[in-house]
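> example.struct
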């Protein structure tokens, strides 16, 4: 019976439920899209290309491991955790001998993979594909076969793949300059190779002679992987087991099938973790915003039906029946919106993945994965959210006595319920606690989720305390509004008499302004502080930068003299235990002339291959001081034990750990310097002439290098902007939706005003005045929330209460919110005023 009545209500009140349907549908679409990203990170396939013809691949372990054993109440619990390293780990070449003796093995092929960027006339690079160097002996792994020419035999011989040859219009006999791990070298192309099939889509291969490949790989006695080809008739699973048994006691990993992809594409494997984190953060924030928006939308919907629901109470409907009715209506609307939104979320998720690939946040080798689980999760979240929103919104109307129902419906309650006020104060206190916690968090992974959670919690407190805030704003603005004429006086009366309705509009506007300002100014706050520290710490006269993969070591060697200093800087990431730290390697000789990270303890003069300098943050976290011993894992998984030589203050601008350049360069995939800091009396033109033979290297002043760093930070920030952009778009839709619902219910009110003598223009002026008043309140609240959160973030991350707020950007945010408020008010208002006042008043009587 109640379900049938709910169906009829939804059918005959389509306009009243449209706002709730749109809010729920957008929420479901957003949750589905974020769910597909999360699932791609968890289960996304990384197809192999290079090892397509090699059923079994042996590689080094790409993780750092930690096992803890706890004894509690006579029971022993063992926990094992693993975290990925930043660079490629290498294997001992001696394992090839052991593997060749395994039964069922036909051939063992060692693989070398290293940086090899072709410098072609149309630009630096391989046309969007990542270029790798290999030894020609490993061509059968794919397999590659010569289509023309001969294999490389001499040190200056080179075989290129068909893709590069076609793009650069190269043929055997031509010469090609390649920037590898050493200084650029020009090779003679002896042949062109093509892979079997069309499976190579994300990389370009350059094949060198075995001796030259070993020189460029710069890892004597080591290989990046070993391909194992079985004899005819040998089962792959049996061979994998035999190979694993032969490698017992080593850290080598054995991969077959889809397991080979992560071995080949390390960036895709690392991107999985990033995508899980990004999808989880977006999905969690979206869910919190959706709950806040949907509750507000349903509250407004129930308020619009107050008279109808009160009539049901007056004709003996019990409070339980009213709650059931609203709950079933919400489930019906939620089911329809959830299904529609989930289906719309699938192409949205695919588009999101494509945009992240285009921005470089996710490699194209990590394939987008879709299953039914995100759809089910979105529909379930929508149903639960709709039902909970309806139950929360119906509490007051369902509790009042039947005799009071119609009187309650005719006039808005003067003060919110004490429970609502108490809940709002609790959320306000919770938001204050989050802001306080944020001010002591000093790492970005820890502070970022707390930042956005604090905004949502504080906006939720605004939603609950909204009626009181609107009345307070009316009291403050009343005198000024009354001076604007009849429209201002009517707007003041509406703000006071319909505070709950106005509060439902204030909440999404506050959330929109607060969240947008936070998203836009979090990264600049961090970036500006880091750039300021870098500017203050660089003492060099000139900086060398490269358009390609980096500055070769030969450049710095050529510039060093008795009077001139050239400091190479190479960057990586290391692990201390399982914790990740940004690190760099710098040339110790003459370091004080080019670099000053503001040493607070110890001395950089003690920086050698056996020592390390640490930031104050790392020193506090790891309890270090000069003379302490630090055990860490370098980028390629090599353990190292170093002595702390110095502690410095500018960790945000220069990383948490600083080691000798040669130590770091031996353990990274790209040993080329990110920059070279030069202290010299020579002019820019003289330095440029000295490095002219190195393609792509240019000499710039430190200020220009700073602007290049700013561009890189901006590129990274664009990923975060895009990630949160959909949440902000959803919030903007909710603003317009709520405004339209708020105005559309006032048709009878507008008709009575017209009958009382108000003109159409005066009514529209009243609506504009209300919208601007609400915008002013929402701007004040949203800006206050953003300022509090950003200030706490700045204190925690940079040590100073100086968030980077760009006035023009802030004004644009407020102007955009104002435009949404005015459009969302004016358009429904004009539609509501089209009907004849007498007809409306008579129909509603």
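> example.seq
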């Amino acid at each position: 019976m109640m379900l049938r009545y709910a169906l009829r209500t939804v059918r005959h009140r389509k306009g009243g439920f449209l706002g709730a349907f749109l809010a729920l549908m957008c929420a479901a679409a957003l949750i589905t899209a974020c769910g597909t990203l999360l699932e791609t990170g968890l289960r996304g396939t990384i197809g192999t290309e290079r090892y397509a013809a090699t059923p079994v691949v042996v590689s080094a372990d790409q993780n750092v491991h930690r096992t803890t054993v706890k004894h509690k109440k006579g029971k022993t619990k063992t926990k094992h955790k693993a975290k990925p390293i930043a660079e490629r780990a290498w294997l001992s070449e001696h394992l090839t001998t052991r593997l060749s003796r395994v039964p069922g093995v036909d051939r063992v092929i060692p693989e070398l993979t290293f940086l090899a960027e072709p410098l072609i006339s149309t630009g630096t690079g391989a046309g969007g594909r990542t270029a790798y160097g290999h030894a020609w002996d490993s061509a059968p792994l794919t397999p590659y076969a010569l289509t023309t020419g001969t294999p490389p035999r001499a040190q200056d011989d080179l075989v290129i793949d068909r893709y590069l040859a076609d793009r650069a219009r190269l043929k055997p006999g031509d010469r090609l300059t390649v920037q590898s791990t050493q200084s650029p070298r020009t090779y003679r192309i002896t042949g062109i190779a093509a892979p079997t099939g069309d499976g190579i889509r994300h990389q370009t291969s350059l094949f060198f002679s075995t001796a030259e490949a070993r020189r460029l790989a710069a890892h004597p006695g080591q290989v990046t992987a070993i391909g194992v080809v079985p004899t005819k008739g040998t089962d792959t699973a049996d061979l994998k087991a035999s190979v694993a048994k032969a490698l017992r006691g080593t850290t080598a990993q054995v991969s077959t099938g889809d397991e080979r992809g992560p071995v080949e594409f390390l960036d895709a494997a690392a991107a999985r973790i990033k995508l899980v984190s990004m999808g989880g953060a977006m999905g969690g924030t979206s869910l919190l915003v959706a709950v806040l928006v949907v509750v507000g939308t349903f509250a407004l919907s129930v308020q619009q039906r107050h008279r109808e629901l009160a009539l049901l109470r007056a004709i003996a409907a019990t409070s339980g029946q009213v709650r059931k009715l609203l709950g079933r209506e919400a489930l019906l609307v939620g089911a329809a919106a959830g299904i529609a939104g989930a289906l719309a979320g699938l192409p949205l998720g695919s588009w999101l993945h494509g945009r992240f690939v285009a921005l470089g946040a996710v490699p194209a080798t990590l394939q987008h994965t879709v299953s039914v689980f995100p759809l089910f999760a979105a529909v379930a979240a929508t149903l639960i959210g709709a039902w909970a929103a309806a139950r929360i919104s119906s509490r007051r109307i369902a509790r009042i006595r039947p005799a009071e129902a119609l009187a309650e419906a005719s006039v808005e309650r003067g003060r919110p319920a004490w429970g609502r006020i108490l809940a709002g104060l609790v959320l306000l206190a919770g938001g204050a606690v989050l802001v306080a916690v944020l001010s002591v968090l000093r790492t970005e992974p820890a502070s970022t989720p707390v930042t956005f959670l604090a905004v949502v919690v504080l906006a939720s407190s605004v939603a609950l305390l909204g009626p009181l805030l609107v009345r307070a704003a009316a009291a403050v603005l009343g005198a000024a509004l009354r001076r604007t004429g009849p429209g201002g006086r009517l707007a003041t009366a509406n703000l006071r008499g319909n505070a709950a309705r106005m509060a439902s509009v204030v909440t999404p506007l506050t959330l929109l302004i607060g969240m947008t300002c936070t998203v836009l100014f979090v990264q600049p706050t961090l970036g500006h502080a880091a750039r300021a520290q870098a500017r203050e710490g660089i003492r060099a006269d000139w900086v060398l930068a490269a358009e390609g993969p980096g500055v070769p070591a030969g450049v710095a060697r050529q510039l060093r003299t008795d009077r001139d200093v050239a400091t190479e800087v190479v960057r990586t990431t290391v692990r201390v235990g399982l914790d990740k730290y940004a690190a760099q390697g710098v040339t110790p000789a003459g370091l004080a002339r080019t670099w000053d990270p503001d040493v607070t303890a110890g001395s950089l003069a003690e920086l050698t291959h056996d020592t390390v300098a640490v930031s104050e943050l790392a020193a506090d976290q790891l309890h270090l001081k000069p003379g302490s011993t630090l055990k860490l894992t370098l980028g390629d998984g090599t353990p190292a034990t170093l002595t702390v030589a110095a502690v410095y203050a500018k960790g945000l601008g220069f990383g948490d750990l600083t080691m000798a350049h040669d130590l770091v360069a031996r353990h990274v995939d790209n040993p080329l310097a990110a920059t070279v800091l030069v202290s010299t009396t020579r002019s820019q033109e003289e330095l440029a002439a000295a490095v002219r033979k190195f393609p792509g290297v240019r000499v710039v002043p430190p200020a220009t290098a700073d602007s290049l760093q700013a561009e890189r930070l901006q590129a990274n920030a664009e990923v975060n902007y895009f990630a949160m952009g959909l949440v902000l778009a959803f919030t903007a839709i909710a603003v317009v939706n709520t405004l339209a619902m708020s105005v559309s219910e006032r048709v009878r009110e507008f008709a009575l005003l017209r009958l009382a003598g108000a003109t159409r223009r005066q009514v529209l002026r009243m609506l504009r005045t209300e919208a601007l008043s609400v915008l002013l309140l929402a701007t004040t609240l949203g800006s206050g929330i953003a300022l509090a959160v950003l200030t706490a973030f700045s204190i925690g991350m940079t040590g100073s209460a100086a968030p980077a707020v760009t006035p023009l950007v802030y004004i644009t945010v407020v102007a955009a919110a104002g435009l949404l408020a005015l459009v969302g008010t004016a358009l429904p208002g004009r539609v509501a005023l089209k009907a004849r006042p007498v007809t409306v008043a008579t129909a509603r009587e």
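> remarks
The first helix runs from residue 2 to 12.
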